[in-house]
Amino acid sequence: MREIFPELLVKIWIFVYNESMNTVQRTYVIESEKIKGEKTFLVLSDLHGTKVEHFLLEKVKELSPDGIFYVGDMADSIKHQPVTESLMQKLSAYPSYAVFGNHEYSARLIGRMEHFAKENGIRYLRGDGVDLGANIALYGLDDRYVGKDFERQKRALKGRKEGSFSILLAHRPDDYDFFEEAGFDLVLCGHTHGGQIRIGAINGLYAPGQGIFPKYAGGEYQLGKTKMIVGRGLVQNALPRWGNPPEYVTIHLKGKKV
Ligand SMILES: [Fe+2]
Predict the structure, then answer these.
(1) What is the whole-number distance in angstroms between the Cα of residue 45 and the centre of ligand 1?
(2) pLDDT tens digits, 66-122
(3) How many angstroms does the Cα of residue 73 sit away from the middle of ligand 1?
(4) Across the chain, what does the average pLDDT equal?
(5) For a tag site, which of 38, 49, 141, 216 has the least CB within 10 Å?
(6) Is the pLDDT of residue 16 over 90?
(7) Interval between CA 143 and ligand 1 midpoint (Å)
(8) CA 129 from chain center: how many Å?
(9) Of 232, 257, 134, 129, which is closest to residue 182 (Cα–Cα)?
(10) Region 229-239: what's the mean pLDDT?
């Protein structure tokens, strides 16, 4: 028994570790009387050089979304640019909208990503918005690394025209007070990598910006009238993701009869 026990523990560890590395699709259905019709969007974040094309391209084809939203940290270093650009280029057949995360800033990739996006018809939203049809409006906010412009973008977003179902793409969930105050219907975030480790009731052990036992590590949150969804990201790197598989998010938006 003494010899079997450590061996069993190792086997359990390997099983949970492997299970935690299989990327999952997380789906949210959101209904609102403001939405006229039905739309499906794919939400991707926090790629950090992870190779996902071998399974994701086929999945996206099956889903046939009305658009793709990138919520930051898709690019993080010049070394990973071929992985980032190949994926985003292949998915650019779908209407694509993006915001910058902290890693696009720290790796000084803003200029390069803007140029790449322009060439591939991908639209970065930086304090501005687009009409997605079905009375849905999409807005985007840079990561706060941008300094002064971050404040300008927040002011611009607060002054937006209301009436549509409003979605905000914002890389990190830390600005939850602003999301609620600005009255968005839905906010889509990433950045936290699901808090790396999830065991039982612990939804995340650590997330940058929030510290240990982060409140907004991943999942769905209600901030007054604003719903916030935090995606756990696609990243698979040297840091273990225990009980916290990488994920991509789909959101189904539907009209609701009053
Ligand atoms: Fe981030």
Answers:
(1) 9
(2) 999 999 999 999 999 999 999 999 999 999 999 999 999 999 999 999 999 999 999
(3) 5
(4) 93
(5) 38
(6) no
(7) 8
(8) 17
(9) 129
(10) 91
- pLDDT for the residue 1: 60
Reference 69, options 253, 222, 223; nearest CA is 253
Domain ranges of the chain: 4-255
* DSSP output for 23-57: -EEEEEEEEETT--SEEEEEEE---TT---HHHHH
CA dihedral for 199, 224, 173, 227, sign (positive or negative): positive
Ion ligand 1 contact residues with beta carbon within 5 A: 73, 101-102, 191
Ligand 1 center from residue 189 Cα (angstroms): 10
Tell me, in angstroms, the distance from the centre of ligand 1 to residue 190's CA: 7
- Residue 35 CA to ligand 1 center (angstroms) comes to 30
Q: Of 3.40.50.2300, 3.30.70.100, 3.30.1490.10, 3.60.21.10, which CATH number belongs to 4-255?
A: 3.60.21.10
Q: What's the confidence (pLDDT) of residue 101?
A: 96
For residue 154, the CA-to-ligand 1 centroid distance in Å is: 19
Q: What is the CA(121)–ligand 1 centre distance, in A?
A: 24
